């Protein structure tokens, strides 16, 4: 138990020590997105009746920040440790692969939630953002971050160089987040694109998360949560298999 | 009694390259053991398999009776490894690094022992300095300290003295010798053969993934038959009758390899006959370096002879 807690502590300390970069900077960029999009689109779009576009946008942006940071945390920590070689200290220790998995996922979830909470608190200064169900908000924040944290482990283990990791991020994570309905309700899309969006697991994360704020969503939040949880389990299973066989880390 | 390390028929292939070809090795508890071999012989690969950093393609390894794959938790708890590569985590200070490493092994209140290691490795004034700001030799000391945080009964050091100054080298060996006296089993690799000779009781020599010598240093050195004589002559010419015995020549010194002490008489006679005067004469004791060179050359010759045979066959 102590071994696992120490690895978790180390992973938390790692991003906390550079908190300006890992928590503060993403908060600032998310708020910038918010200012720009709300300024440009406020008068033109109304996603849900009676909900101002800026207010509609806020949960999506918060979730996007959480997803990106949860992914960035586990993936960059792992690839740095792999490239600099200090992953040996973890690999030499009597830690099971499940403990390693859990520590990396939890630390990344904490970073994701910290960024998300930070953005939310700042937006409260400027906008009136209702939360109708903290439980839904929390459940989707948790599951979304955990899903991306596990994906981050896969990317961090698979990538051998920083540009491979950047490719994973730019060609998989970024498009999936942008196309998940952060900036729009998918009901505004033509049917083909609407159908395609339903194949994107991140769509369910954002849609369910938004339900916690407005009690309105494109899909039932129960269904969304089920889909997100299933994705998390599938990705976790894959990650655990990779860790178990020591793929690319125990040659 | 359970051996400290038991390696059974370990093979390791990296793609088509065979890094280890069936290694068998047993290191007893309390031994001070050296693993020697040229670059690329497979020393680090073997250590990595013992440490669980690499998986053997075939064979098994036990540390204090614990299988390194099946029973990895117990095996890793009793093992401390100093890796060959100079690795460190740039996010932390020396002290944090050691505390985190202790925690990985499930140790909570390990402050007193950490202080002791820090003191022995002369890191006290660097305890709160970030790892990034340490010199190479200091980083190496931290690596040693990290391997010792959990007081492992078996300690493996992969070239711990590469790039380390004389003072630390002596300090390090003093510390390691003390640990050995207290009962810790020590396994080290080094390219400084004098170091191995001075410290270790037994050595294994690896060559291309196979153990080609495994014995106590005394037996290995005694196994070298014959002796070597170093001469300085006036005039500075080696009589032609002695040329077949010449093993090397440098700066006016001739080193002759003799099959036995009885040949000394023949040498003296030849010198007298040629009118050479002996200015200096030394009989060189065989040492580990000589054993090493002979062992490495020996199997090489046998092999190239075999190759010559097989290539000769078609004609
Ligand atoms: N991860 C790897 N992938 C491919 N080949 C490897 C790998 N690790 C080691 N090798 C190869 O295995 C062989 C043995 O290497 P090893 O590092 O064990 O040698 P060594 O005896 O420790 O040498 P040195 O004295 O230089 O440290 C070498 O030919 C090396 O190139
Ligand atoms: Mg090596």
From TrEMBL, chain A:
ABC transmembrane type-2 domain residues: 17-246
Record-linked PROSITE patterns: ABC_TM2
InterPro entries membership: ABC-2_transport_permease (IPR052522), ABC2_TM (IPR013525), ABC2_TM_bact-type (IPR047817), ABC_2_transport (IPR000412)
Keywords: Cell membrane, Membrane, Transmembrane, Transmembrane helix, Transport
Any one GO molecular-function label of the UniProt entry: ABC-type transporter activity
Top-level division of the source organism's lineage: Bacteria
Chain segments annotated as transmembrane: 20-38, 50-71, 102-127, 133-159, 171-193, 219-240
Annotated membrane topology: Multi-pass membrane protein
GO cellular component: ATP-binding cassette (ABC) transporter complex
Localization per Swiss-Prot or TrEMBL: Cell inner membrane; Membrane
Location (main, coarse): membrane
Xref: Pfam families: ABC2_membrane (PF01061)
Family: Belongs to the ABC-2 integral membrane protein family.
The name this protein goes by in its record: Transport permease protein
Organism: Nitrosospira briensis
From TrEMBL, chain B:
Keywords attached to this entry: ATP-binding, Cell membrane, Membrane, Nodulation, Nucleotide-binding, Transport
Transmembrane segment boundaries: none
GO molecular function, one term: ATP binding
Keyword Cell membrane attached: yes
Annotated ABC transporter domain residues: 5-233
InterPro entries, A to Z: AAA+_ATPase, ABC_transporter-like_ATP-bd, ABC_transporter-like_CS, ABC_transporter_ATP-binding, P-loop_NTPase
Keyword Nucleotide-binding attached: yes
Pfam families the record matches: ABC_tran
Entry's family note: Belongs to the ABC transporter superfamily.
Protein name per Swiss-Prot or TrEMBL: ABC-2 type transport system ATP-binding protein
Originating species: Nitrosospira briensis
Source species taxonomy: Bacteria, Pseudomonadati, Pseudomonadota, Betaproteobacteria, Nitrosomonadales
């Amino acid at each position: 138990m102590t071994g696992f807690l120490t690895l978790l502590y180390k992973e938390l300390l790692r991003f906390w020590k550079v908190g300006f970069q890992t928590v503060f900077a993403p908060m600032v960029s998310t708020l910038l997105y918010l200012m720009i999009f709300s300024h440009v689109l406020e008068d033109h779009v109304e996603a849900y009746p009676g909900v101002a576009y800026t207010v509609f946008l806020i949960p999506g942006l918060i979730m996007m920040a959480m997803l990106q940071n949860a992914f960035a945390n586990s993936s960059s920590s792992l690839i740095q440790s792999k490239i600099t070689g200090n992953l040996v200290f973890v690999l030499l220790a009597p830690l099971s692969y499940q403990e390693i998995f859990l520590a990396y996922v939890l630390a990344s979830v904490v970073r994701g939630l910290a960024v998300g909470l930070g953005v939310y608190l700042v937006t409260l200064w400027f906008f009136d953002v209702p939360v109708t169900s903290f439980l839904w908000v929390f459940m989707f924040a948790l599951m979304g971050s955990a899903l991306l944290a596990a994906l981050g482990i896969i990317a961090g283990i698979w990538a051998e160089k920083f540009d491979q990791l950047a490719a994973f991020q730019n060609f998989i994570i970024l498009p999936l987040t942008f196309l998940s309905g952060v900036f729009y309700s998918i009901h505004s899309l033509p049917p083909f694109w609407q159908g395609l969006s339903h194949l994107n697991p991140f769509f369910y994360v954002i849609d369910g998360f938004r339900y916690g704020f407005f009690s309105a969503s494109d899909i039932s939040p129960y269904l969304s949560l089920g889909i997100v949880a299933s994705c998390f389990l599938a990705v976790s299973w894959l990650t655990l298999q990779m860790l178990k066989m020591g793929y690319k880390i125990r040659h | 009694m359970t051996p400290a390390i038991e390696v059974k028929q370990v093979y390791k292939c990296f793609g088509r390259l065979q890094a280890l070809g069936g290694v068998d090795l047993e290191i007893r508890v309390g031994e001070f053991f050296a693993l020697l071999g040229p670059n690329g012989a497979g020393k680090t690969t073997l250590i990595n398999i013992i440490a669980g950093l690499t998986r053997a393609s075939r064979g098994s390894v036990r540390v204090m009776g614990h299988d390194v794959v099946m029973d990895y938790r117990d095996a890793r708890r009793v093992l401390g490894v100093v890796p060959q590569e100079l690795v460190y985590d740039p996010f932390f200070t020396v002290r944090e690094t050691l505390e985190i490493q202790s925690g990985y092994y499930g140790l909570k209140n390990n402050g007193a022992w950490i202080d002791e290691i820090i003191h022995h490795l002369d890191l006290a004034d660097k305890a709160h300095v970030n790892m990034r700001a340490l010199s190479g030799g200091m980083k190496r000391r931290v690596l040693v300290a990290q391997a010792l945080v959990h007081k492992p009964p078996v300690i493996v050091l992969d070239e711990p003295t590469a790039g380390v100054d004389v003072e630390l080298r002596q300090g390090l060996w003093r510390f390691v010798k003390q640990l050995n006296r207290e009962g810790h089993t020590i396994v080290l690799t080094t390219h400084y053969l004098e170091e191995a000779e001075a410290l270790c009781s037994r050595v294994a020599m690896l060559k291309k993934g196979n153990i080609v010598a495994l014995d106590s240093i005394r037996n290995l050195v005694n196994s070298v038959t014959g002796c070597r004589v170093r001469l300085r002559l006036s005039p500075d010419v080696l009589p032609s009758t002695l040329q077949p015995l010449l093993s090397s020549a440098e700066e006016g010194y001739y080193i002759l390899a003799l099959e036995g002490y009885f040949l000394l008489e023949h040498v003296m006679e030849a010198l007298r006959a040629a009118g050479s005067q002996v200015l200096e004469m030394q009989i060189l004791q065989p040492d580990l370096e000589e054993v090493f060179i002979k062992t490495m050359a020996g199997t090489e010759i046998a092999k190239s002879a075999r190759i010559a045979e097989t290539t000769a066959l078609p004609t």
